Amino acid sequence: VTSVTVAGPDRSLRRRRAIGLTVCVAALVAAVVLSLALGARPVPWADVIAGLFDPDPGEIAHAAVRQRIPRTIVGLVVGAALGLAGGVMQGVTRNPLADPGILGVNAGAAMATVVAIALLGIDHVTQYVWFAFLGAGLAAMAVYVIGSLGREGATPLKLALAGAAISAVASATISMILLTRIDVLNVFRFWQLGSLGRADLSQLALVSPFFLVGCIVGIASARGMDALALGDDMAAGLGMRVNWIRIAGAVAAVLLCGTATALAGPIGFVGLTMAHLARMVTGPNYRWILPYAAGFGAVLLVVADVAGRVVARPEMLDVGIMTAFIGAPVFIAIVRRQKVREL
Amino acid sequence: VSTAVSAKPALPGAVVAVGRRRRRHRQLTVIALLVLALLLAWAVTLTLGERTFAPAVVWRVLGGEDIPGVSFTIFDVRLSKLIIGTLAGFAFGLGGVIFQTMLRNALASPDIIGISSGASAAAVVSITMFGLRGRAVATLAVVAGLAVACVVYLLAWRQGIHGSRLVLVGIGMGAILNGVVSWALTRGHQYAIAEAMRWLTGSLNSSFMEGVPSLLVPVAAIAPIALWLGSRLKALTLGDDLSFSLGISPGRVRLGLIVTGVGLVSVATAVTGPIAFVSFLAGPIAFRLLRNSGGLLVASGLFGALLVVVAEFVGQNLLGTRFPVGIVTAMMGAPYLVFLLIRANRNGTAL
Fold first, then answer.
1. Which residues of A touch B201 (CB under 8 A)?
2. Strand, helix or coil at A11?
């Protein structure tokens, strides 16, 4: 009898994952510290520490530091949601360019939310988060259907362009509504660019159940995504229910993107870049990719937000602009790496 | 006509001549109809609106008569926007179809592959951060448009240029450049939605008579060159070897066309912002109207102009609030993009 070595992850891969995890945790801590310490208003370290642990209500510097706490926490959650959603979408569509921003899902969520706020007069996050889910779901479905029609099925090019078309309609609609309600424009502005400027912990608490369900469903379908990566027939042969995996992935992505957009507006490129980074660190296994993508996404969003506060002092650059600066070059690099017939 | 040809076996030369005459006829008809539609759109825009004027009054104002209260609306508000909208639309349509034909891909229009965004970013940075205006803004926009075209082309080059890769690289580039636009708007002053609309989706709201020369002069200078080079474009679509044997140097024609196409789109963007999807829409629709009968470049320019003028009228008068033209064209362009995608094959899609 020949002994069969079980093809587990080899040692170098395990080491890479361990190093990746360490770096991710260290980066998270550093990002949180930076996010609390740096802002549009420069605050000395002594005041940062005093502001966190022994705040003096009369001190403006302390108040500024305390304002950064919700912003940081919401940034972590939104980033993790977008990173995880990007990984899930790449797994479900088997498409290296899938991202909640590029495929227009976030734009759809933002459009539905703004329409609901303007037409139905609702203004509470527990109300409009449902419209964010609705918009995200409709946009995801539309993009996937449009991208799949035609001869070759859902190629990355067609999905990306369908996403661009949906985003164009969504942002034109948002603009139309904002222009008719110029009075509330400053409140609504973040629906166009994506920003953490309105971060609010009580809102976060209200939508966190959706975020948690999205995380659980997403990570639970990771094994199915690994099978999907082999092709639909192979996955079915392995005993997977291909359609159920796709539906579970779509539900997870919609919950995560809808939550993130309801909290911070449409933000692109986080999922795209961080899922690829996670894949580079962990290898092609989605059970590893997804949690790492969530961790890296949290780091990226907080770091991008900090950078946006610092580079344009005394103004703040919205985090959606910063993630485009960071993520779009990665997008181009991924496009360049693909073979033409895979696009 | 086809039955007539088949019934009487004609000499091959005669058949070709009939086809040529028919195409010539169709080409002239389409162009004449587009000009007519454009004139009609002008007449409607000048007379109807928030205030409606009798055609005779409009005619007298255009003839130079100064009628208090009326002249300003017709001459300074409506006519200036019409002139700038028409010129910009013509430039967008012509520039767009040059790219689409040259790259043999309808998706590779300057507004989809990031060139318009580059010109827009240069214009808004030079205006809000350096306080430039007029000719300097247009020059910088053209330089930036050319630079972005070069960068996109180089980044998309990997053992040759392929349509899909070019379009995707261009989309990524567009995301960065739109970020630059938003950055410049945030830095300059309080984020003003009207300005943001202009530089992200295009608007004629800040078009006045003073702005006409800075658009008219470059378009009048570049468009004839583009049309002349474009008459040689047909040969390029046959492939480099064949066009070379026809006595056309493909490299030079292509370079000239890229420069003029980018130039047209960029000077227009410097004045109106990148009016969404006009470059993308004009070429394919003009092509459908003409059905391969030639005159594609002129017809695309005219259709672009018609599109901008009509969309501006719709945005200003028919939707309740005054919306900038770019929002209306975005609403029209996106469904057409979806339609093209559904029909597209892997190589993108020819016109």
1. 171-172, 175
2. helix
pLDDT of residue B309: 96
Collapsing DSSP to helix, strand or coil, A225 comes out as helix
**Phi then psi for B141, rounded to 5 degrees?**
-60, -45
Contacts of A151 in chain B (CB under 8 A): 345-346
- Output Rg (C-alpha) for chain A, integer angstroms: 21
Distance (Å, whole) CA A147 – CA A134: 20
One-letter amino acid identity for B316? Q
Note the pLDDT of residue B22: 84
pLDDT-based confidence at residue B339 (cuts at 50, 70, 90): confident
DSSP per position, A263-319: HH----SHHHHHHHHHHHHH-S-HHHHHHHHHHHHHHHHHHHHHHHHHHTTTS---H
> In whole angstroms, what is the distance from residue A311 CA to residue A326 CA?
14
- pTM to 2 decimal places: 0.86
CA angle A222, A227, A229 (to 5 degrees): 95
Which of B287, B324, B285 minimizes the C-alpha distance to B306?
A: B285
Q: pLDDT digit string (tens) for B154-209?
A: 998 888 778 888 889 999 999 999 888 888 877 655 556 667 777 888 888 877 88
Nearest to B183 among A180, A321, A327 (CB): A321
Say if residue A314 is preceded by a cis peptide, omega within 30 of 0.
Answer: yes
Residue type at B124 in one-letter notation: V
Residue type, B45: T
Q: What is the pLDDT of residue A4?
A: 47
CA–CA min distance A169, chain B (Å): 6
Instruction: Report residue B220's pLDDT band, with 50, 70 and 90 as the boundaries.
Output: very high
* Average pLDDT over every residue of A191-212: 85
| Tokens at A231, concatenated | 């092709």
| 3 state SS for chain B | CHHHHHHCCCCHHHHHHHHHHHHHHHHHHHHHHHHHHHHHHHHHHHHCCCCCCCHHHHHHHHCCCCCCCCHHHHHHHHHHHHHHHHHHHHHHHHHHHHHHHHCCCCCCCCCCCCHHHHHHHHHHHHHHCCCCCCHHHHHHHHHHHHHHHHHHHHHHCCCCCCHHHHHHHHHHHHHHHHHHHHHHHHHHCCCCHHHHHHHHHCCCCCCCHHHHHHHHHHHHHHHHHHHHHHCCHHHHCCCHHHHHHCCCCHHHHHHHHHHHHHHHHHHHHHHHCCCCCHHHHHHHHHHHHHCCCCCHHHHHHHHHHHHHHHHHHHHHHCCCCCCCHHHHHHHHHHHHHHHHHHHCECCECCC
Query: Which residues share a beta bridge with B345?
Result: B348
pLDDT at B5 over 70: no
Q: In 10 A of CB A182, how many CB atoms?
A: 12
Query: Does A151 reach chain B within 8 Å, measured CB to CB?
Result: yes
Query: Residue B319: its chain A contacts at CB < 8 A?
Result: 176
Q: Which residues of A touch B155 (CB under 8 A)?
A: 332, 336
Distance (Å, whole) CA B15 – CA B5: 7
> Which ipTM score applies to this complex?
0.86
User: Of the ranges A223-227, A303-307, B8-12, B58-62, which one carries the lowest mean pLDDT score?
Assistant: B8-12
* Lookup result for tokens 């006045």: B208
- Is the Cβ pair A332, B337 closer than 8 Å? no
Q: Assess whether pLDDT exceeds 60 at residue B8.
A: no
Structure token pair of residue B252 = 């030079």
Contact at CB, B193 and A189, closer than 8 angstroms: yes
The mean pLDDT value for A275-280 works out to: 92
Q: Say whether B175 and A146 touch across the interface (CB within 8 A).
A: no
Backbone phi and psi for residue B97, each to the nearest 5 degrees, phi listed first: -70, -30
